[in-house]
Amino acid sequence: MTDRDNTYRIDIVDTVTVTASPDKTLLESLESQQIDVQYHCREGFCGACRTTLLEGEVEYTTDPLAFIDDDEILPCCCKPTSHLKIKLGF
Amino acid sequence: MKYTTFNQQNVNQLDEPMFFGNPVNVARYDQQKHSIFEKLIEKQISFFWRPEEVDVTRDRVDFQKLTEPEKHIFISNLKYQTLLDSVQGRSPNIAFLPIISLPELETWVETWSFFETIHSRSYTHILRNLFTDPSSIFEDIVVNDEIKRRATDISKYYDDLIYATQLWQTQGEGMYTNEGQPYPVNMRELKKKLYLCMNSVNALEAIRFYVSFACTFAFAERELMEGNSKIIRLIARDENLHLTSTQHILNLWAKGKDDPEMAEIAEECAEEAKSIFMKAVEQEKQWAEYLFQHGSMIGLNKEILCQYVEYIANQRMAVIGMGQPYDVTSNPLPWMNNYLISDNVQVAPQESEISSYLVGQIDSAVSEDDFADFEL
């Protein structure tokens, strides 16, 4: 379901819509478009980048160790596999 | 209930709660009730490091160049961190191990405490390099009022839980008096003490290190005391992992995924738990005031540091369902993140970084083609 340039649409609630490539982590994609996301470890164990996922699917590059709720994702260690709707902060 | 080092009753460990079930017997990790603790153990072990690996000799020269207020900031932080890790190097073992019922949690607590002892040893490594005789620094930790006030709050909940557990394990439930003080011992009281203690530990790991971390990294931003900063980065990485474990424990309880009685207690003691956290935040802010009483340092002042503490507190309170009581919405010290990235920490993978970098690893995928140029 990707667009012709092979990217997914990331709809950030109350701000903007950006694009994300399926071969970068979501955090890297957001940063490359000057979206400010809090982070610490960038490896999935601290949970600083916790983000609410409202719509869409992601896949993890490493098993997230930090506590995340059922509707939350860790952008530092996941890649989108569909268009997403997310809410930054929590 | 009497503690036994090897419970000979046959217990299904998958039915046990994290705490106050049967004592653990077989240390087996092939099956896990809460697999997160096993994953945390693996991660923590992959982080292994030794203070001696970090060269701190250049810090001695830098230290002489610091102003008097900066020296006060640097040394006071080391004293406070020494206190924190002195407590954390022993207390989770003494308080939690006698009441834990899951092997993976038991091993996690032991691993966690062991790493705190590495931190303690690294403070000695740093101080020995700065002073020919660091005794006066260590001796001040037990007489300095600012540090003592924090020590009281940090150790109080551990001590309460430990004493109640000792009474329960030696004498059973009942009403006891010691030195005129009444001590009611029953399962509900014990679990409440455990809940409050875990919240106090969670606040410690979440908040209490961060004013010191910020100061250390602010020195490093000016290319000062870089050996020390390298060590503190390793410590910060470990503390982040420890925090993850206490957040998991608190959430497993609150969401009713472990002991149902702990879910009731979490609700009942929600306000008290929140006030434990917010008191830790207040104490950290007072610590910033104490540090900067003789003057601030370049790049940091009391106000910005207090905002940072509140910012971090908001995030860490939200994870455990305490909301975000402070008004800070953006990170006042964005450069801090660069020091908290995990993979900026180490260079050689065999030393710690990649857990899949195994000792004596062999290639087990061998196809027939691999023997193509092989002749007998």
Automatic annotation (TrEMBL), chain A:
<dbReference type="InterPro" id="IPR052353">
    <property type="entry name" value="Benzoxazolinone_Detox_Enz"/>
</dbReference>
<dbReference type="InterPro" id="IPR006058">
    <property type="entry name" value="2Fe2S_fd_BS"/>
</dbReference>
<keyword id="KW-0830">Ubiquinone</keyword>
<dbReference type="InterPro" id="IPR001041">
    <property type="entry name" value="2Fe-2S_ferredoxin-type"/>
</dbReference>
<dbReference type="Pfam" id="PF00111">
    <property type="entry name" value="Fer2"/>
</dbReference>
<feature type="domain" description="2Fe-2S ferredoxin-type">
    <location>
        <begin position="8"/>
        <end position="90"/>
    </location>
</feature>
<dbReference type="InterPro" id="IPR012675">
    <property type="entry name" value="Beta-grasp_dom_sf"/>
</dbReference>
<protein>
    <submittedName>
        <fullName>Class I ribonucleotide reductase maintenance protein YfaE</fullName>
    </submittedName>
</protein>
<dbReference type="InterPro" id="IPR036010">
    <property type="entry name" value="2Fe-2S_ferredoxin-like_sf"/>
</dbReference>
TrEMBL record, chain B:
<dbReference type="InterPro" id="IPR033909">
    <property type="entry name" value="RNR_small"/>
</dbReference>
<dbReference type="GO" id="GO:0004748">
    <property type="term" value="F:ribonucleoside-diphosphate reductase activity, thioredoxin disulfide as acceptor"/>
</dbReference>
<keyword id="KW-0560">Oxidoreductase</keyword>
<dbReference type="InterPro" id="IPR009078">
    <property type="entry name" value="Ferritin-like_SF"/>
</dbReference>
<dbReference type="InterPro" id="IPR000358">
    <property type="entry name" value="RNR_small_fam"/>
</dbReference>
<dbReference type="InterPro" id="IPR012348">
    <property type="entry name" value="RNR-like"/>
</dbReference>
<comment type="similarity">
    <text>Belongs to the ribonucleoside diphosphate reductase small chain family.</text>
</comment>
<protein>
    <recommendedName>
        <fullName>ribonucleoside-diphosphate reductase</fullName>
        <ecNumber>1.17.4.1</ecNumber>
    </recommendedName>
</protein>
<dbReference type="Pfam" id="PF00268">
    <property type="entry name" value="Ribonuc_red_sm"/>
</dbReference>
